[in-house]
Amino acid sequence: MGYSRQQFYEIRRNFQSFGADGLLDRLPGARGPHPNRVDEAVEKAILDYSRDFPTHGPLRVAQQLVLQGVQVSSGGVRVSGAATTCSPVIHGSYGWSVSRVRRT
């Protein structure tokens, strides 16, 4: 199994820059937290409200929280598609989640 010239120079550059750690395969994609995360306080308010009113949709939850002084859009609140498999601590007891928590 061989390497192309471009792959060789990329591997060599990684080894020279990072040592043996530069030879490890890295998954592509963003590193760190999602840039559109909501604050912990907002997440807690969303989850508390959605536990009290499980039939309200994202728009209604967002509107009611704005009336309570919590600034969040309906896009910041979403219904989890896998409500039956989600952890109640992360996604709320009725399948609600917050944009910052998108784990499966």
Shape, principal axes of CA atoms? rod-shaped
Instruction: Let me know the average pLDDT.
Output: 75
Number of strands: 2
CA radius of gyration is 21 Å
Helix content: 25-40%
- Low-confidence parts, pLDDT < 50 over ≥5 residues? 81-96
Strand order of the largest sheet: 1-2
Largest sheet: 2 strands, antiparallel
Strand proportion, as a percent range, falls in 5-15%
Structural class: mainly alpha
The span between the termini is 36 Å
Question: What's the helix count?
Answer: 4
Order of helices and strands: HHHEHE
Brief summary of the model shown:
Strands 1-2 form a two-stranded antiparallel sheet. Helix content is 39%, strand content 6%.
Q: How does this model look, in words?
A:
By secondary structure, the chain is mostly helical. The protein has a domain at 40-98. It is 39% helix and 6% strand. It contains four helices and two strands. It has helices at residues 5-18, 40-52, 58-67, 88-91; strands at residues 77-79, 96-98. Strands 1-2 form a two-stranded antiparallel sheet. The longest helix is centred in the N-terminal third of the chain and has 14 residues, at 5-18. The chain is rod-shaped. 20% of the residues are buried.
List keywords for this structure.
104 residues, mainly alpha, 2 strands
Task: Walk me through the topology.
Layout: H1 5-18, H2 40-52, H3 58-67, E1 77-79, H4 88-91, E2 96-98
Antiparallel strand pairs: 1-2
